């Protein structure tokens, strides 16, 4: 812990990394898995024992092709932090493999379509009058038909409630979206919403990016810039930290050093400037600085996709709105920790975790299912950093795989989120009836609890990242437009360029 006096960090060797991109060898394996999964998707309407055996037998074969991609360091994007993309692809493939080969081994999900009241057939083209529709199951398309081809693509690509982006006006979805789509229609009916009164990105629903006032967008953009700038400054090799009321603010450039030394008294700078550089653990930072660092990482995660989606939606208005689901739905204003993770954070990944949880023992028990979902979320993030944790010379075996799957800090953080949700529910259920009338106090307490559960265990998540020495200036510069262009061209940047 650093409190007001100069501390020289222990010497650490540079992260061993190949700055030469080499991701093309992974493409054949990825294409093989995708094409084989697509073939299995086309067979899902068949519930015969033969096809069930074929789907089950496909699991070990596809897993043996996809899993090694996450650990093979010869396959690289030329940057340890950019390399997170490779195990992320592996994880996405594995979730689909589990879903199609195991969860749907007996047969796949039925397609659903929108019906108007008292109609015998679904509508040909969905209109803006969402309140008039009821979503019902329809028959599987016939084999060797265009409809079966489209069904296979939908099963392969749909990962969240809503309708398909392929031929979107048809309003096609799968049966696991039925509840969400019908609940939305009922919500609009209850609130007397006319079709012309519903903006395409209405905030009353789950589907689509909520309408965002200009000032809110500007504030989010500013917050995103501050988050990235704060992390970049902290990662500078010669970073100094200035103590302001116990909070250490990173100052990263020679100009900023000279500026602060010029305007502040020499006695102040001698006592309150600390040469630290890139920390390798959260314990090297003062408490308040660590909390700000955790918040900055979280802000960078959800503000960047939201910012990019907002830019896309300036030029593209999804019609119908049910074919687009924003990744993040105003997480900072979530009323509780449960609502944050269920409705506001990485919506496109939730079904992956549910599928992985469904193969675990006793997963139909609600409390265990919640813990399983967050456990697999921790496993996903552990795998993303696995090649930085596992020895480069280690052969892919069961111990190596387990070591890559379990990063103690990351798994502990996510499991703590599940425990936080269960504890909040238990406390709310145990409250005396008279106390439940104080809704404002309860709402305030739930928000305080949400940020406590996020920021407290979040230090374990950040500590795992810092220990891997990926928060350095050279590595973060690998995400500039120029360096990403060099990566696509197969050229290095930075230290070895």
TrEMBL record:
Membrane-crossing residue ranges in chain numbering: 26-45, 285-308, 400-423, 444-462
Keyword Membrane (UniProt): yes
MF-aspect GO terms: O-acyltransferase activity
UniProt KW keywords: Membrane, Transmembrane, Transmembrane helix
One GO BP annotation of this record: lipid metabolic process
Database matches in PANTHER family: LONG-CHAIN-ALCOHOL O-FATTY-ACYLTRANSFERASE 3-RELATED, OS04G0481900 PROTEIN
Name recorded for this polypeptide: Wax synthase domain-containing protein
Species of the source: Kalmanozyma brasiliensis (strain GHG001) (Yeast)
